[in-house]
């Protein structure tokens, strides 16, 4: 008899081996942060490389799954012994970090200031921290700056970025362009008027007097001082913004879109994937998370449910329930009722599976690789659970479920 050839499951291995930067995006609640961590683990299992997982999501869920109390702007290496204790064999080194907005802005000022006097003046400005925390989606721009830095150092072979939920992820991608545009904007010119000219227009004078009365003396002068100093750093900021934009469309960079196959998340994933295509940003893979088994939508599965319904409940002989109850050490009448109810409701499950199959097909048309991850038992909250997810992402056979 001829041996049946096993079908090769889609895998993220080729993507992880061929790219230097991977941005993981998707709507909230689809397991994006966990997938980003599992991708990092999958990379160091397959390759003898240095891999960093960076999260820009304000919710610090990543630390728990990686067995850390907390982490911040400085990359922290996951202990090899902790990985071994979780039954995970790795060839490379796995690091994690989280974007720190305050530390990031301070570093930007030090880097782009034309001289020490400008640097010190900006950092000492009383409005500096308040303005930068709200300035032009500062969190987004800092994320892009940090990506550029990590890539430029060459310290890591692969950087995997966990981005905020999908439509917000697009604000991250657009942040460099917005920063470059800001330096030529009317807003910046208006903010620096009090500093650049002692002669305000007749219409402007009442406004500044009222603002000083309401907000306190020197409020507008402090704003003007800050933005004049900030304008002195235009050349450095604009140059870096263009470099970051180039990095996002570089062949060494790829995007991984994560989604469940429910209606709303799948719609968001489709929107995101199409937006990435419009921006000419490469989509490396789409990961469909918490997917029902494909065979549930098959005719054979529906027929099996019909047979189960016939053999249980009032029309059945009870033999099947007795056998299952003996195996489980449970009451046979309870088991019979459960089996019969499941059989009766199977059409609902089959309908969900059929709809998932259709949505998956729509998403698969937007990427060269689509990886399915089934429902796993319980939430992934430790390294062992991440290992199970990593096996599914790599398309490895007999991936045991998390307990």
Characterize this entry briefly.
The protein contains 20 helices and eight strands. With 403 residues, it is of the alpha/beta class.
* N-to-C CA distance: 37 Å
What profile does the largest beta sheet have? 8 strands, mixed
- Strand % is 5-15%
- Assign the structural class, choosing from mainly alpha, mainly beta, alpha/beta, alpha+beta, or little secondary structure: alpha/beta
Query: How many β-strand runs?
Result: 8
Rg, rounded, reads 27 Å
Indicate the mean pLDDT: 81
Global morphology: elongated
Could you list the spans in which at least 5 consecutive residues all have pLDDT below 50? 1-6, 198-203
Helix/strand order, N-terminal first:
HEHEHEHEHHHHEHHHHHHEHEHHHHEH
Number of helices: 20
Order of adjacent strands in the largest pleated sheet: 3-4-2-5-1-6-7-8
**Helix share bin:** 55-70%
Task: Explain what this protein looks like in three dimensions.
- The chain has 403 residues and is α/β, with parallel strands linked by helices.
- The chain has helices at residues 13-18, 32-46, 62-65, 80-85, 101-112, 116-124, 128-132, 138-153, 166-182, 186-191, 193-196, 204-215, 219-231, 234-248, 263-278, 299-311, 319-328, 332-344, 346-364, 383-393, and strands at 21-26, 50-55, 76-77, 93-98, 158-165, 253-259, 283-291, 370-374.
- It has an eight-stranded mixed beta sheet with strand order 3-4-2-5-1-6-7-8, with helices on both faces.
- The two termini are 37 Å apart.
């Amino acid at each position: 008899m001829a041996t049946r050839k096993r079908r090769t499951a889609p895998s993220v291995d080729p993507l992880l081996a061929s790219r230097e930067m991977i941005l993981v995006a998707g709507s909230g609640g689809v397991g994006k942060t966990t997938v980003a961590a599992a991708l990092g683990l999958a990379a160091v299992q397959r390759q003898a490389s240095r891999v960093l997982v960076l999260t820009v999501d304000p919710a610090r869920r990543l630390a728990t799954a990686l067995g850390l109390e907390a982490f911040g702007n400085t990359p922290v290496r996951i202990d090899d012994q902790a990985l071994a204790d979780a039954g995970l064999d790795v060839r490379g080194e796995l690091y994690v970090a989280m974007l720190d907005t305050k530390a990031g802005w301070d570093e930007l000022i030090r880097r782009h200031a034309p001289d020490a006097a400008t640097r010190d003046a900006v950092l000492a400005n009383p409005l500096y921290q308040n303005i930068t925390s709200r300035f032009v989606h500062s969190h987004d721009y800092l994320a892009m700056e940090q990506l550029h830095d990590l890539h430029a150092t060459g310290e890591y072979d692969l950087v995997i970025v966990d981005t905020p939920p999908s439509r917000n992820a697009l604000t991250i991608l657009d942040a460099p362009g917005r920063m470059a545009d800001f330096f030529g904007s009317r807003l910046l010119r208006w903010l620096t008027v009090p500093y650049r000219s002692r002669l305000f227009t007749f219409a402007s004078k009442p406004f500044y007097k009222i603002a000083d009365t309401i907000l306190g003396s020197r409020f507008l002068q402090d704003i003007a001082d800050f933005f004049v100093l900030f304008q002195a750093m235009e050349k450095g900021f604009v140059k870096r913004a263009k470099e970051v934009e180039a990095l996002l469309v570089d062949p060494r960079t790829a995007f991984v879109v994560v989604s469940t196959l429910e209606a709303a998340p799948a719609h968001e994933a489709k929107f995101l994937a199409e937006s990435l295509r419009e921006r000419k940003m490469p989509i490396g893979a789409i990961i469909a998370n918490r997917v029902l088994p494909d065979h549930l939508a098959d005719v054979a599965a529906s027929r099996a449910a019909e047979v189960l319904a016939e053999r249980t409940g009032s029309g059945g002989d009870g033999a099947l329930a007795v056998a299952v109850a003996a195996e489980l050490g449970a009451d046979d009448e309870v088991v019979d009722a459960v089996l019969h109810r499941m059989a009766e409701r199977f059409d609902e499950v089959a309908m969900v599976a059929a709809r998932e199959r259709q949505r998956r097909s729509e998403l698969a048309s937007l990427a060269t690789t689509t990886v399915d991850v089934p429902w796993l038992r319980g939430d992934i909250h430790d390294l062992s659970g991440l290992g199970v997810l990593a096996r599914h992402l790599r398309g490895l056979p007999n991936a045991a479920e998390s307990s």
